[in-house]
Design a protein that fits this description.
Blueprint: E1 23-24, E2 34-40, E3 43-47, E4 54-58
The structure holds zinc ion (ZN).
Length: 65
């Protein structure tokens, strides 16, 4: 699936390739395949492909430090 999006909100930094395939569960609709769209500090920013909610999660590794 295409993963295109327009970065029209807060400027997100790119995530390392090792983290770019992380998936998280959407807190809104519980879709388990929300994908990474960037990061803010040590938090990964995910966006749900179903309801488009954005949410943060602490990065699972220290690779961003
Ligand atoms: Zn969702």
């Amino acid at each position: 699936m295409a993963r295109k999006y327009k970065p029209v909100e807060l400027p997100l930094r790119q995530v390392p390739a090792a983290l770019a395939t992380e998936e998280a569960t959407c807190p809104n609709c519980n879709d388990r395949h929300a994908g990474v769209v960037g990061r803010m500090g040590l938090r990964l920013v995910f966006r749900c492909g179903r309801c488009l909610v954005r949410f943060h999660r602490i990065a699972p590794t220290s690779g961003l430090a």
